[in-house]
Design brief:
By secondary structure, the protein is α+β, with helices and mostly antiparallel strands.
């Protein structure tokens, strides 16, 4: 899997379409969660794309400190279902952390994790903070690095 890191205005129309399609496939269809994915924040995000055979198969979006949280933020973390056996989630998260450190000059990162994925994020140095909560009907917990 190749990693591309782009600002919104650097995304090609095809890349943007594939990102939105994959986010819908994972978060809306697979997780059966009706929510407003296109939220007006993509224009401010740093987009981290995992590309395999010309297709986006893994993705995150990252924000500088002060936009989402006091810390920098990672969100919309996903890997296409058929590709999860390949550990691409670890690669895309590592690339996202490195991109934040290099582009936003901070190591302080916060994310809102689906609770069943806390071990995954803890393997990358994140710690749970606070109490769990429902976000779009799915149990989440805040985590920081």
């Amino acid at each position: 899997m190749d990693i591309l890191i782009k600002n919104f205005n650097e995304l090609s129309l095809e890349e943007l379409y594939q990102v939105l399609q994959l986010r819908s496939e994972v978060f809306v269809v697979e997780q059966n969660c009706v929510y407003q994915d296109i939220d007006g924040k993509d224009e401010k995000a740093l987009h981290v794309l995992g590309i395999k055979a010309g297709k986006v198969i893994a993705y995150t979006r990252c924000f500088d400190k002060g936009f989402y949280f006091e810390e920098a933020a990672i969100g919309r973390v996903l890997v296409k279902e058929t590709e999860r056996k390949n550990a691409y989630g670890h690669l895309i998260l590592k690339a996202s952390i490195l991109a934040i450190e290099e582009r936003f000059k901070t190591k302080n990162i916060k994310l809102s994790a689906q609770q069943y994925l806390t071990d995954f994020y803890e393997n990358h140095g994140f710690m749970q903070i606070g109490e769990g909560y429902l976000e779009d009907g799915i149990p989440h917990i805040a985590m920081v690095k």
